[in-house]
Structure formats: structure tokens, C-alpha cells
Amino acid sequence: MAWWRPYREALDAEVFHVDLAPGATREAAALECLDDAESARSRRFLAEPARRRYVLCRAALRALLCERLGCHNDALSFCASRLGKPRALVDGKAADIGFNLSHSGEHGLIALADTGRVGVDVEERIVRHDIDGVLKAVFAPAEQHALESARGEARVRLFFRLWTLKEAVIKALGTGFTLETSDFQVPAAMLAGARAGDFRFPHLPEVTWRLQTLGNAQFEAATARELPQVRASR
Length: 234
Fold this sequence. Notes:
CATH architecture of the largest domain: Alpha-Beta Complex
CATH class of the largest domain: Alpha Beta
Distance between the termini: 50 Å
Number of helices: 7
Order of helices and strands: EEHHHEEEEEEHHHHEEE
Number of domains: 2
Number of strands: 11
Strand content: 25-35%
Largest sheet: 4 strands, antiparallel
Shape: globular
């Protein structure tokens, strides 16, 4: 009955794939797992695919957290930081676990880490015709140059690789898009194609962020994980 499965271990986090294809039986089962607030939110989605993705991902997240935390579903709730990053609560008390989810098309990813912050992003790899229009708004100068130099399928893959890496970082930070993605650059080695790399923000000198790509034939994905108290060489 489960529509999620282990996908990959990355950066000491466990990542699960969530199948978001239509299925009346599992959609009904998923809806039964949601609390009143989540059910109400699901009804506010005007488009059926968006509602389905929300319900299936949210129910999978609940099942995985309950298993990891050893609690019943009705004991699990959520709160959010000032900028909206969610935290899990068990019987009203904050649980020491990091988690994040993302979905695109018929694919969802959920990342779980025993402690600390984690971010994950997935994007269905489809041809986009607005790449030039978002270059300066989203990417740092070196990233813009790399994208301007790429052609065809290679350009599409690079666009989504950089996009998912950047979004995974801001989701891990919990800032959302209040942090300008053009203000920081994906590590140079990853820009050249490496699957993993470390970097830090100038205003967070005590924290190094580790990134890893998780793409496959259908989608591009990335995770970000904080490594506290690590001083990266400049």
C-alpha cells in the first residue's frame, strides 16, 4: 500500500522517493492520515494534480516521521519558524529530527536527518524556454556564464542541477526565497560536474554547507546539509 520507498542515502541523511502518480485507493488512504488543518489545506487546492501531490507527500512524511520517532500519527503535529520552515512535534514537544520534502510532476522526495537542518529539492527535467529570462535573477555571475556557454540538453541539465542545489540550500537554511539565490554560488567543482561539494555563506562563518546532486533520467534533485563548527579554508 505504501507509495514511498527508500531512494538514496546522501550526506548522512536518508532520502525517500514518493510516487505521485494518480491512484484513487492510495489517495483515499493518504487523506485519512492527515490532520484537520492538513485536510482543510488540501481542499484549497483548485487543481487536482496539486492537491494529489500535497496529500500523498504529506501522508508519506507523516508515516516516515512516526516510524523514525516511534510515535502514533495522532501524536504528531507541526509548527513553523518565523520564515515558515516546519518542525515536528510529538505530543506538543519539539522532536530532534531534520526533515524536508519537495515534489515536481509525479515525483516527490523526502529527506530525513537525525539532527540538524536538511534541505531537498526535486525538479522534473523538462525543456524550459525562459532560461535566459531568469539567469540574472537566480544565478551568480559564474553560473550565468556557464549556462550561456552551454547548449541543448546540456544546458537544460545544468540549469536544473544549479536550480535544485540552490533551492535545497535555502530550504535547509529555512529562509525561503527571502535569500537572493544570485548572492551565492554553487561550489566551482560542482559547477564543473562534481556530484558533491562544500561551501559557506560569508555571514555564517561557523557553518559549512555540504551539497550533493541526486539526479536520474527523469528528474534532477539535490540535498543540502549543514556541518556546524567546521571552518572552511578561504
